Amino acid sequence: MADISKYKICTLASHSALQILKGAKDEGFETIAICQKGREGIYESYNVADKIITLDKFEDYFKIEEELVKDNAIIIPHGSFVSYLGHEKIESIKAMHYGNKKIIEWESDREKERKWLLDAKLNLPKIYKDPEEIDGPVIIKFHGAQGGKGYFIANNPQEYHERINESGNNDEHAIQEYIVGVPLYTHYFYSRLTDELEIMSFDKRYESNADSIGRISAKDQLDTNIRTSYTITGNIPLVVRESLLPILHEMGRNVIESSKKFVDGGLFGPFCLEAIIDPNLQFFVFEISARIVAGTNPFINGSPYTWLKYDVPMSTGRRIALDIKQAIQEDKLDMVLG
Ligand code: ATP
Fold this sequence. Notes:
Blueprint: E1 8-12, H1 17-26, E2 30-36, H2 40-45, E3 51-55, H3 65-70, E4 73-75, H4 79-91, E5 96-97, H5 101-108, H6 110-119, E6 127-128, E7 138-142, E8 152-154, H7 157-167, E9 173-177, E10 182-191, E11 196-209, H8 218-223, E12 230-238, H9 245-262, E13 269-277, E14 283-289, H10 304-309, H11 316-329
Parallel strand pairs: 1-2, 1-4, 2-3, 4-5
Antiparallel strand pairs: 6-9, 7-8, 7-9, 10-11, 10-13, 11-12, 13-14
Helix pairs in contact: 1-11, 4-5, 5-6
Residues 125, 139, 145-148, 151, 176-179, 183, 205, 207, 230, 232, 274, 276, 286-287 line the site of adenosine-5'-triphosphate.
């Protein structure tokens, strides 16, 4: 049986790194955290990294890549990794990379993402190509906006133009039907080794100021001219009605099957479908993340769902390490790298 001590698990110290590194240590791996200068303290204090490499900025990753290759490090990508490096640079990574690099392009490009999700037979909010066609509530999403910052709502063409001018932002953006319902982020894990799809956990986001507007009266909202914004500040754990689990499982499976049509090797490892559920229990999926999401962070100690299946606290970070460990032991590491 191949020896896991030859490998190290490594990630950028942000986003879901604490969970990834802790999970790797729990599965018996040594770990490396790549930290931005000044942020090392928290990773030292939680004792999750056997080695810390400090960079002035994450974009300098390629300056230290040689060291990672020598260390036989396996990089675990996450949301910050994708947004700091971008999918093109990620494709040029030489160190071992967990998950399929090519899928990142499909989650990062709105057109490709839509094509993929529609192919998977998911229900998506309508997109308005022309603002003059706005005939109900819409959400304006700027490309590359991180964490919902700067998004706004409009109800007709006039409001759209007013608010675009008000925002002073001329960047490319999508005009998407605003679905009135509750947000649900489903965290999946798909292992190519076992061909098994697991629902790991669920969250919803804690956003400023969307999650605080209800704390003041409608009159005060109008008097102070508050505009809704969605700056993410944290994540709130959820469980869903048990009767929703079969459909959610099927949706995840469809996404995996359809990914194989677009990208060699398809999607594997952790991913997340981000949806709004309306009062008729219809799901509107507005985004896919094809890597671990920060919404799994409330479950470092496992979730109600992972507790059903595992005898140990199984976070998504730990599940990744378990996948890698199994791959090493079965001499199938290629199946989890990409
Ligand atoms: P990313 O996950 O790429 O960082 P983001 O955080 O920039 O994306 P989204 O997650 O797409 O932004 O959306 C921000 C907020 O807007 C979330 O609260 C989400 O629930 C809400 N939202 C997004 N799209 C819709 C929609 N079509 N209808 C209703 N609410 C939506």
